[in-house]
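Task card 7
Instruction: Convert sequence to structure tokens.
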Amino acid sequence: MKRIAILTRDCAGINTAIRAVVRTAYHYGIDVLGVVKGYEGLISGDFIPLDRRSVSGILNLGGSILKTARSKRFKDKEFQKLAVRNIRENSIDGLIVIGGNGSLTGAHILVEDYGIPTIGVPATIDNDINGVDLTIGADTAVNVALDAIDKIRDTALSLERVFVVEVMGRDSGYIALQVALAGGCEEVLLPEREHDIVKMSEEIKAGNAMGKVSWIVIVAEGKARASVIAETITEITGLETRVAVLGHIQRGGRPTALDRILASRLGSYAVDLFKDRKTGLCVHLENDREAAFPLSKAIEPKKVDIEAQYRLIKLLT
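Output:
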């Protein structure tokens, strides 16, 4: 293998993974190209050379130096074939895809349908890749959200109000569940489970009558809009309710030590697999050791048992 390319999405730790791939590849004498703007860049043939110097000083930066863009066109066979032609015309022997379920699905297509050697590196704030305990970017996103919630808690206690905080998570309640537990929040609404908003509001009303003066409800964006939940709470309880939507701040920020270490290990290991002529795999840590399993398994829906953590949240509030 003489040349590989890197394609990414964006979240904290992506740049750390890029650095690990580039520097490990150059250790083995392998050239590296970066694909600008993800699968759109693959379709348009937008590549830039990467070397040891070009990835200097990026380990602690959020986002992706390669930029990213959602690509509806890549779902079309015509554009897939164009992307494959660009790969071959640029003498790319293998592709490392760093991203979430959509990115890894594209990687699987390239392997299975076109025979392009590809390795997937799981990176998404939702931590929803099947077979992976922790994805790059998830720890940072939780800590960014938790920092904001800690500050909101100070205000909630001072003003004696209910706060409804909306966090990211269209299909996955991972961030919401983690910050609710770590932040000592009283309730969390998740896409994966049914919830009785009226019953929750009655619990808030009863708690207030017993002297509880503040309440934080975490809502995953895929479950409901925080503004709607807040209006319902106010209607039933008569209590002042405020809304905080954390939004895309959760996707950015300096990666935590955990994400930097994870990204460094997985990025480097992805190159090791190519060196050993392995392909069609997703890398992860298993019992704190680098491991890999088929991309076909990684893109299956992830089954998560959230009930134990939810019960713990309710027990501790």
